[in-house]
Amino acid sequence: MNVSIPNILDQIIASVPLFKPELALIIGFIVCIFIALFLEKRWRNSTFIGCIVTLGFSLYYLIGQLSTTATGFSGMWLVDTWSTYARLIVVCSTVIIAIFLQQQHSKNNGDVYSILIAATLGMHVLSSTSHWLMGFIGIEMVSIASYILVGYFSHNKTQSEAAMKYVLFGSVCAAVMLYGLSLIYGLTGNLDFQSAEHLQGLMDAPEAIITLALLFVFAGIGFKLSFVPFHVWSPDVYQGAPTAITAFLSTIPKIGAIILFARLYQSWSSTAFYFSELSTWFMTIVAIVTMLVGNLAALRQQDVKRMMAYSSIGHTGLLLMAVFAYQDLNSYLLFYIVAYVLMNLATFIFIDQIEQQTGSTSLLSYTGLGKKMPILFTAFTLVAISLIGIPPTVGFVAKLMVFTSTFSVFQSSGDTGALLLLIIGALTSAISLFFYFKIPLYAFLRSSDQPVILKKQFGVLLVIAYILTALVILFGIFPNWVMQVLA
Amino acid sequence: MGLLSILIFLPLVATLLILVLPTSAKATYKYIALGFTFLQFGLSLYLYGNFEASLGGIQQLEAYQFVEQLSWIRMDLGAIGKLEIDYLVGVDGISLPLIVLSTLVMLMGVGASWNIDKSPKGYFALLMILNTAVMGIFSALDFFLFYVFYEVMLLPLYFLIGIWGGERREYAAIKFFIYTLLGSVLMLLIIVGLYFSVINPVTGAHTFNMLHMMNPANYVDGSFFAYIANYHDVFGIPARLIGFIVLFFAFAIKVPIVPLHTWLPDAHVEAPTPVSIILAGILLKIGGYGIIRVCYSIFPDIAATTNWWLALIGVVSILYGALNALAQKDLKRMIAYSSVSHMGFVLLGIASLTAEGLAGAMFQMVSHGFLSAALFFLVGVLYDRVHDRYIYNFRGLASLMPKYTAYVAIAFFASLGLPGFSAFIGEAFVIIGAFNAESMTTGVPRWMAIGGSIGILLSAAYFLWTLQRMFFGQTRLQGGQVWKEALTDLNTREQVILFPALALALLLGIMPSLVFSNLNASVLQLIDLIKPYL
Amino acid sequence: MITLTHFLVVSACIFCIGLYAVLAKRSAIMILVGIELMINAAILNFVAFGKYDKLNYGGQVFALFAIVLAAAAVAVGLAIILNVYRNFKTINPENIHELKD
Amino acid sequence: MLCPLLAFLVQALLGKKSISGNIALVAILASTLISLFGVFLPIWNETTILQKWAWFTIGQHTLHVGILINNLTALMQLIVCIIALPVHIYSRAYMKGDSGIHRYWMYLSLFCFAMLGLTVSLNLLQLYIFWELVGFASYLLIGFWFTKETAAQANKKAFLINRIGDIGFLIGIALVYANCGTLDLSTLFGKTSVLSSMDKNMSWVTFAGLAFFLGAMAKSAQFPLHVWLPDAMEGPTAVSSLIHAATMVAAGVFLLCTVFPLFNETVLFVITIIGTLTALSAAIFALGQYDIKKVLAFSTISQLGFMMVGVGIGAWNAAMFHLTTHAFFKCLLFLSAGAVIHEMAHLKAKAQLTIDPQDLRHMGGLRHFMPKTFVCMVIASLSLAGFPLTSGYLSKDSIVITAYEWASHLGTAYMLIPVLLIIVSLLTAFYIGRLIFKTFFGSFKYRSLTGAGISFHEAPKAMLIPMIFLAAGSLFPFFGISLTDYHSAWIMHTLETESSYPTLAQAHLFIPALLTGGAILAWLIGWNWYVKQKYPLSENNVWVHFAHKQSYINEFNERVFVNGTIGLSRILYTFDRYVVDGLTKFFSWFVRQLSVVVYWFDKHIVDGLVNLVANATYYIGHLVRHVQNGQLQTYLGFALTIVVLGILYLIIK
């Protein structure tokens, strides 16, 4: 490689077009800070608009990158279908989160939007790199932004507690990961995990140390994805955080992390690296345990947000299964992500809307509400059906595709682990029915005598949620609309 | 859009209409539902009338009738291959009788829901969705489509039981749902496996087309469910066997067989009358239909080797269900258990692998369809009046409600297999088929057939006992004078609903060819499909 | 002569001390300190390894980024702990368990 | 010929409260005429009529429905019509004023339709359908007075026990179908029989034969499935006469005659044994009954046993002959008894007595009040007892003699059967005599009442005419010119059977003739004896008076023999009541208990298991939550411990 400075500069300049969406975000980030500082007082929603505009620009550039496959910045920046679509999903969902925040926390929240943009930037970084340094930066950016988001609105005990748990747990995981990364760096001398040297270094290194290092690294990724055993923070934090933030936490950070993880797994699996076989096992076990823990623990929850936390742990298991079953096409992983984001965003909007009415996220407070808010709860139920994975919803198609790919792995390898994954996946969907259906159970099947005075029910958010619900059904019936785009 | 599609999606139109209409027009909902189901019934009769009975169906697409094929989902999944899902519907002799039955039972169900006043909007909307799903299941020929309808069917049922049900409705609804879902998610895995094993000979893509799955030539050698060079096994069990078992398990829950039946009494008892009617009249048939259409047609080789066990399960279900029915004190629960017993005949007939047995099983399904619907409706009549159905609380109803008693007696006798009524033909041919099995060397021994016939005896016992206990003797009621006044005889609406069902039972009992002639070719075709493996 | 091994041992010790602080200390601030120690152990590693990576100076660069990020994380952490103190009047994590199953 | 009935059925269904008796009557009259002139006369001894229509196709086989009329079926059909007609007429008077009269006619016509259908069925399945339909109609008729608890119990019992037989029948059909591939009677048992080419000693033939016999056993009330028939007397008496004496119970015999070619040696022997056993036990039971109808019921069972023996020994023509004659005299017996009961019930209603109008002990001396009924009843009784000049004499002899021939052909051990049959004949004479004397002789207990303005009179005309008609039919000339030779009876002539014991030695003809003569003589002695003896037994003072005149031996006889027999009868009846019937009850109780147990099992074990799985899952969910105790450092510790464990595992591995 030519290391002369002009060459590097040339390369950097040549790489800038690949970085346009992120540049838009960076500029937007700075602009938003200023808007929040100076303009917000006079013009209430100025930061929000700035945020949306920024995201719009980013989206615009992303669409421009749709069919590009390139690397930039000395291989630190990857633009391929995975990264582009992941970023597209991230930006789109961030728009919804931004609207969510604007609707629910309209006062003194100017800074939140810039932090949101920063988190988005972190996600972009995370999903378009195969370099550990970038990966770490991405994770930390997302994490720190999330800490702030969780802590930003904390007015009471639970909210501050959630923030504290989140920040401490996250920092510990990041520190552990960092330590693991340092070991990996020391053993391989290279930080690009897709490169041949890196792999060679891993293979040459003593097994004990490399095992230690890799598991440490997984701690960091595991924290973001919240798979077992790094899931413990999520129920508390999801419950404690404001609903809009929970919606954010449960969806967006996972997208980047799963993409990173998928790249990692993809670069290792089916190589001579001893860990490749092991990582298959690792994935299988983690996925199985995650699905089981998530779905079983959710059975007993009485708080919807907490239940959804466990549900998203369960879905992480399925995401891992999708990663595990990766063969040569990313579309079904992306499809699952799309489905997951659609469902989760809609769910949290519904939860929030109900919270606005009743002031509670407890399942008990849903008792008999189905009669008073029939449309909302019907839509909510449909989304719950999708979360279980029952046709004709997008959740079903997503699950089917994951099963399909896992089955093809099983058929070609005869791997018992794959079979177990399939069986557990199927069983847990049956189990998950029980807790997801607590929502319609309380809302429709039970009736309460306590009169609930309903406030105005119409809002932008609800419209968004209904659109999302409609998409959940539509994509369920015509999944090829999405797949044709993704493929 | 073909006739079948119209048949399937007509109720969906009704749903939309009901949902769109304001709540102030809630009186019209039932008329909309009735109108649409009536239309459907007419349509299904048209199908029946124009059905060419000599065509077999089963694994030949060209022998199916009213076929519609649209490519639905085409996805390129890279190494996994192309995903090929069609909107493929059609009827053959196996599905046609069940479609006609379903439309009729639906009509009865809507008629029975006349007095629903708890949020009728949701009720009728859900009922119509259920209707769509049921029609879809019976006409889908693509496994994916089938599965979609199969699951869609569960949702409205959950709510219908859960919202409009009895005291323990939550328990019953979730039990029903989880039970069935458990079967169906496992079924999904097998569907996926089949998808990988089968190739559409025309396009070369993997396919969900059930008819392709029925042709051994379409299986990729060495694939998971392949006929040839299949070394796959799961925990030591050959792959094809496990596929069959899982699919059977899924449908057996629906049938239901012992010991997977425990959702049924709960669901039936807690469900409102119309839902019980639909549950017993249609949904149990889906299990039997699935076993014939899916398990037996796709895994004929396994079907030929496992039928001893299936027949055993059938016999056990017959006897076990009948004994349980005999012990019941709740009238509805008794009928629910009698359903278990009667559906055991279906399984026994199917497992006998003889033309007589299979045709008998189909006939039994049709017959049990409207007879159980009628029975549940009759229970509903009583329950409507006094909100009690505990057998010991009634005595000598015959003097109080002569018409009702007459209908009950006819329904009971028809159900216990009195010749002249349809159930007799079904049961008799199942038994004959089971006896015949030994001559055909299909592996079902004769003692099973005898066991099945003891079930007929037991069914007579519990029906007659109930009849004697509740209707004969001097009038003595738990609720005293209040009940006496409440227990009015059948009104015209109730008679209008009941009469066709019982008349049909009689008609089919006297002219079984109305059903047999249509399904005979298909049954023979199925037998031919399985025969090479015997 | 101080070899790479010495660095590694020291960093491992620091990491363990940090880990101990994280797990055992009864104050959120001390946990933060523990985290800082762990991060520093990693940074030490990076720098030590970086000596052998003549090509890209990846270790040093990583170390720099890590320091910045750690600082940011700790800053946010401190702010949040302050907030917790306002609400709970304590920063002992043992006493902060409003959220649990 | 079935049309009038079917048409009428519809009318009866529609015509609710109308006096549908007329329609029924017209219909049965029409069928009688048609069956006599349209069917019986042209067919008898002529060709077989066979008409069939495809019914439905199942698999490769097509089933037909249709009409098969040969000698056997034509005869049976005629019997049904001829018996049904008087019963209809009788019923009009007997059932007058009952509130459910329209139901009665409906049921009755349904029964007639089913019975006629049964007789002319083309294939076994069709036969089975009508067979069950007959049972169903009988169920309805037994339970006609459904508010009576005993009636409701009785009809349930009747139907269930018949069901047992039906299952046997069905199994038989299934076996035949499975092995022969057809159910068509004409193909199965006709000239070019499928069966004739088969080896009759195959096990399935035995099983099928036994299965058919099981069906016949239940319907024809053979031991031990006879328990339903005495209970079935809860129905109106006219019904009892039609169904439970003349026609329906004979259907079993008819079935056996129809499928006779199927039977092999083993089955026939079983039939003989069971028949004999039934004849004997029922005759003994009849001795001690006080209920007039129950005596007749047991007598019916006993006579059916005779017919069974007839079939069993291969002389199914004799069985059919006896069936025919029995239909007449038993029907007459019932109708006469009905007339008596009718009057007694009137008396009871008017005098407000709390007596059972069917109890023999309350009757006596009725011949003064009802002379015509008395005469009719005596004729019938004589016929039942096998007195010469009556039809019963011919037919009963035919069975006994053939049995004797059969036994002597096979060996001495088999002689037990004809001997037992003769004993049964004696017993028959005894109990029917007892019935007559108790009812019509002696003094009437409630004579005082009759003087006090409450009339007790002869049965109305509508009841008497049919009785007289039947009485005429119970005499011999109706069946054969010869007084003694049953072979000359026209029924026997036409229904010629191929005897399985070809050497029908001429010498054998005399021995049975002698035997019959002896038997008649014995009956006559017994008869006279009972006229005198039977009487005093119930009235103590008269008994003392007669005891003086008779020798001590006679008294001894009286004590030991008569009392002993009656005592035995009582004991055996008790046995029947409590052991055989008790067994039935026990069995039903057992099934019910079993069902309770099974239900318990279902509820607690099967469902319990399901719930256990659910709860276990739920509980595991609870366990999983343990980690989630809200302590941040526990969380961290948990996560890191797992990581460390993972590392350790991977390193050690």
TrEMBL record, chain A:
What keywords were assigned to this record?
Cell membrane, Membrane, NAD, Quinone, Translocase, Transmembrane, Transmembrane helix, Transport
Query: Catalytic activity, per the record?
Result: a quinone + NADH + 5 H(+)(in) = a quinol + NAD(+) + 4 H(+)(out)
Where mainly found?
Answer: membrane
Chain ranges of the NADH:quinone oxidoreductase/Mrp antiporter transmembrane domain: 130-409
**EC class (word):** translocase
User: Carries keyword Translocase?
Assistant: yes
Enumerate the InterPro entries for this protein: NADH-Q_OxRdtase_suN/2, ND/Mrp_TM
TM regions (residue ranges) = 23-39, 46-64, 84-101, 110-126, 132-154, 166-188, 208-233, 245-266, 278-297, 333-354, 375-398, 418-437, 458-478
EC assignment:
7.1.1.-
Quote the subunit structure annotation. Answer: NDH-1 is composed of 14 different subunits. Subunits NuoA, H, J, K, L, M, N constitute the membrane sector of the complex.
Please name the HAMAP family in this protein's record: NDH1_NuoN_1 (MF_00445)
Function summary: NDH-1 shuttles electrons from NADH, via FMN and iron-sulfur (Fe-S) centers, to quinones in the respiratory chain. The immediate electron acceptor for the enzyme in this species is believed to be a menaquinone. Couples the redox reaction to proton translocation (for every two electrons transferred, four hydrogen ions are translocated across the cytoplasmic membrane), and thus conserves the redox energy in a proton gradient.
Q: What is this protein called?
A: NADH-quinone oxidoreductase subunit N
From TrEMBL, chain B:
Record has Transmembrane as a keyword: yes
> Where's it found, cell-wise?
Endomembrane system; Membrane
Q: Could you tell me the superkingdom of the organism this chain comes from?
A: Bacteria
TM ranges are 94-116, 123-141, 147-164, 176-198, 241-264, 276-299, 305-323, 335-355, 361-383, 404-435, 447-467, 496-516
Q: Which InterPro entries match?
A: NADH_Q_OxRdtase_chainM/4 (IPR010227), NADH_UbQ_OxRdtase (IPR003918), ND/Mrp_TM (IPR001750)
Q: Which UniProt keywords apply?
A: Membrane, Transmembrane, Transmembrane helix
Q: Does the keyword Transmembrane apply?
A: yes
Q: How does it sit in the membrane?
A: Multi-pass membrane protein
Where in the numbering of this chain does the NADH:quinone oxidoreductase/Mrp antiporter transmembrane domain appear?
140-441
Cited PANTHER family: NADH-UBIQUINONE OXIDOREDUCTASE CHAIN 4
Q: What protein family does this chain belong to?
A: Belongs to the complex I subunit 4 family.
Task: Name the chain's protein.
Answer: NADH-quinone oxidoreductase subunit M
TrEMBL record, chain C:
The molecular function terms in GO held by this entry are: oxidoreductase activity
Tell me where on the tree of life, at the top rank, the source sits.
Answer: Bacteria
Keywords of the record: Cell membrane, Membrane, NAD, Oxidoreductase, Quinone, Translocase, Transmembrane, Transmembrane helix, Transport
Q: State which residue ranges cross the membrane.
A: 6-23, 30-49, 61-85
EC number per UniProt: 7.1.1.-
The broad enzyme category this protein falls into is translocase
| Family assignment from sequence similarity | Belongs to the complex I subunit 4L family.
Q: Which PANTHER family match?
A: NADH-UBIQUINONE OXIDOREDUCTASE CHAIN 4L, NADH-UBIQUINONE OXIDOREDUCTASE SUBUNIT ND4L
- What is the name listed in the Swiss-Prot or TrEMBL entry for this protein? NADH-quinone oxidoreductase subunit K
